[in-house]
């Protein structure tokens, strides 16, 4: 698997070159959110806002009213938790093109409950006018800016940084509102719908289960809102056991809830199994440890499938395809966090 | 405090720096400049200022159990401090990235078992990198900057109503004072006459992005605070005598703020080469790390750190110069 470093850092510099309306706003985490190269390349289009996120978001709303396109950069958690009212009233209500780039979603940070964005999709999704995107690999990090820029209103992005795998062909960039079909079965046992870093886990689990004859159709979602996928509903209706959602987020309000709402309306008549954080806060530890502890890794999905099918496949951790785990102090990131 | 006591405090401060340096080298990174700037403050608070619960022996932190929920009561690290007793002080560490310094301070003042440092940022441990309320010496969860002082003010209000003898002592960093919430808290604490609240700010002048004046200006910090109704002192944050003197002054009706001007390379001058990026020390390459290991070994062999030694030398030189000048005049 190809691993890339600091994809966003380089990409946004190239991408924003001739877009004079694009500004980057940063709240004292400029290197940690890979905006340092942008700052050094286009100092006139970079605004340092200090550790004052509420002001930063409403300030961005003001800029957007006057025709600029602010790309607000900080950790995901400090965007939506700290400045939710500002986002709601100064950005979402007037439907302004403020693009919020949120880093370290879910269990990606060892910083504990204060740093872990575990309900961001839930609360941001409830805001009218809001679009929500999530990146799952390097190809999507490279193409998400284009998608966000073309949306007329506000966009919230769950972004990846540091060392990230390339799961998807660079010739197939992220497309607004389009689900990626990673595997398709005519008569699937399950339909797996995953997002973000959980897609890689889902791919590993699916491959291991395929060896035991379990057929899984797999969709990767990068547009969480709006979500309009009759083809997924149809696949669920045609499946034997139903749908599994898999996300690096609380099962309340995130991808699991999104799919639940659609299923309730479409009526495929199948069950839904949600893998995600089960209505719990999380603490500070490594990503791999937390994914295992809170049951959002490939093995947890395999256990779920075993529970539903009533079979045991004897799959062990080492039977799974390898994932890449960057070192804590990788040189692809500036700080501990 | 007398001279002997002062030396003890300064030695402890140096050992805090040394311990954090050792940790930074062994873990390949760490919040080292925070130790340099605030070690004197932590040592003075834990040895001379805070009213703490008596401990028979240093405590060993428990493993992390679970996040608070229906089956898990919220636990705090207050037993390492005043343990919630009415006569003891509450200690609120607001910039949770300073937890590493706090842990070192607890060890150096005999309140935490030194083996706890091995648990730092380890999976399943409560000795977290960004300290949370279950971490040793942490009484509330403060890693979202700017929230510590508001919680502390609420605690101060409740303790005032209850008539507790203990005060609420808060340690803040300067960058977090850029947030609106900080100023809202100062406004509320002074409006509600929380004279039992005393806040020490480590004004080291740097934040993640570099020098604070190039990120978002906060000065004149002392005047701004005064305008918000607080009682304000601005001191040399490495002057342990002065920290103690102000901490022990009779409280006024208003909350007290002590702005401690500090140097993020204090005691470890080799850090200056990293200017203006002090926030987190990570090594460029293994050679860089080895160089720091060398610094550590040299300092550790000396026992005392440069801070104390340098101050002694400075003092002696100044005295010598003064004596020399006096001799010339006579
Ligand atoms: C609300 C909030 N925004 C951003 C951060 C990320 N963050 C952690 S430490 C830090 C810099 C803090 O600077 P300062 O308060 O001066 O502390 P020091 O540099 O001395 O550690 C930032 C931006 C945070 N923890 N909370």
Gist?
Chain A is of the alpha/beta class and 337 residues long. Chain A folds into 2 domains: 3-165, Rossmann fold; 180-310, Rossmann fold (3-Layer(aba) Sandwich), CATH 3.40.50. Chain A contains 12 helices and 14 strands.
How would you describe the overall organization of this protein?
The complex is a heterodimer of chains A (337) and B (330). In chain A, helix 1 (7-15) packs parallel to helix 7 (138-150) and helix 8 (198-210) crosses helix 12 (298-309). Chain A is an alpha/beta fold and 337 residues long. Chain A has helices at 7-15, 36-41, 53-65, 76-80, 84-92, 120-125, 138-150, 198-210, 230-237, 255-266, 287-293, 298-309; strands spanning 3-5, 22-26, 46-48, 69-75, 99-103, 131-134, 155-159, 163-165, 180-183, 190-195, 216-221, 223-225, 242-250, 271-277. Chain A is globular and about 60 Å long. In chain A, the strands form three sheets. Chain A has a seven-stranded mixed sheet with strand order 3-2-4-5-7-6-12, with helices on both faces. The longest helix of chain A has 13 residues, at 53-65. Chain A contains twelve helices and 14 strands. Chain A has two domains: 3-165, Thiamin diphosphate (ThDP)-binding fold, Pyr/PP domains (Rossmann fold), CATH 3.40.50; 180-310, 3-Layer(aba) Sandwich (Rossmann fold). Chain B is α/β, with parallel strands linked by helices and 330 residues long. In chain B, helix 7 (240-247) links the parallel strand 6 (231-236) and strand 7. The chains are: A alpha/beta (337), B alpha/beta (330). The complex binds thiamine diphosphate (TPP). Thiamine diphosphate sits between chains B (34, 95, 97, 143-146, 173-176, 204, 206-208, 279) and A (27-29, 51, 53, 78, 82).
CATH class of chain B: Alpha Beta
Q: Which CATH class of the largest domain in chain A?
A: Alpha Beta
Going across the major beta sheet of chain B, what is the strand order? 1-2-3-7-6
The multimeric state of the shown protein is heterodimer
User: What best-fitting shape of chain B do the alpha-carbon axes yield?
Assistant: globular
- Taking all Cα atoms into account, the compactness measure Rg of chain A is 19 Å
Range of strand content of chain A = 15-25%
At the third CATH level, what is the topology name of the largest domain in chain A? Rossmann fold
CATH architecture of the largest domain in chain A: 3-Layer(aba) Sandwich
- What is the CATH homology-level superfamily of the largest domain in chain A? Thiamin diphosphate (ThDP)-binding fold, Pyr/PP domains
| Order of the strands making up the biggest sheet of chain A | 3-2-4-5-7-6-12
Number of domains of chain B: 1
Which superfamily, in CATH terms, is the homologous superfamily of chain B?
Thiamin diphosphate (ThDP)-binding fold, Pyr/PP domains
- The total beta strand count of chain A reads 14
**Straight-line distance between termini of chain B:** 34 Å
**Tell me, what's the shape of chain A?**
globular
Instruction: Find the CATH topology of chain B.
Output: Rossmann fold
Structural class of chain B: alpha/beta
SSE run of chain A: EHEHEHEHHEHEHEEEEHEEHEHEHH
Low-confidence stretches of chain A: none
Work out the helix count of chain B. Answer: 9
